[in-house]
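Before relying on records like the one below, remember that each one covers exactly one chain. Contacts with other chains, cofactors or solvent are not represented anywhere in the record.
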Amino acid sequence: MPPEASHSRAPQITTSVQFSSTAASDTSPKSGRAARRMKFPGKKLLPVLVFILSCLSILRLLKIAITTSSSSSPAAALSSSLQQECSSSSECSKVPSNAPGVKSGPHKTSANATLLTPKEFMLLSNLITRKEPCNLLVFGLQSQYLNLSSINAGGITLFLEDDPYKISEIEADSNGARIYKIKYQVPAKKAYGLLKHARGNPACAPSTSLLQQSTCKLALRNLPEEVYQLKWDVVVVDGPIGDAPEAPGRMSTIYTASMLARAGKTTDVVVHDVHRTIEKWFSWEFLCEENLVSTKGKFWNFRISGQSNSTRFCSSETVHIE
């Protein structure tokens, strides 16, 4: 009985639908209402489509983040397994340009590396060109800096780097530059305490003659011997990475660069990433605004004259940090 009743009503439903459709075509108000009723489901589905597309975008971003994290973990593991503490100047590991295991071929940029802009590199290349052949010391290492050693033909170019991953990316021909693997001990989060220590400790004054014997907590005492023996014409500070509170900061490299510069005649000290707080604070404190001769991008170029007998880094008693 129910199937038959359903079947008997079916033709009536079909007829009424066709009739309504015909009537709607004759009367414009009904036609407008019918059109609006047909568009209404589309408007209702629009938020659903937007929600679905948003979910797909979020899933894609999560996939990219997971892929990036997994690709950087081997570099971190390599850094952890290969880094060795440079407990004395004789134990710093020298990496020759033709050392076994040094890769040749295209460079792969490290995840945390910051490439120089063309204007920043031009500042360095022009500076080296004016002074070559010269003694060039670089805290940090990347492929762009290796080009400086070719500009400095006949001079000495020395790199100090703590990341074995970066060292492993160097091509076999590094223009005769000398590369040392070192280790930094102090994380960036201790910057403020070290600044207070330096201001109140006479051992940190620029009149201190031997960095290797200094009791100042900012002094790098375990660098290769030639770092202390040579008079440097240009010192570039672009290491360690210093991009997180737990990562090694550049407090000691800026201080040590300042001390090495004051042991020579006239030295240009170029600090990278001066948009960051630590680089800015310690540059003002130990290299001094009065010695700033040029800026380009994230580079500050300070020109330091030998002041081995001075008891202060800057002419004013205190550098006011904003």
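The first strand starts at residue 93 and ends at 95.
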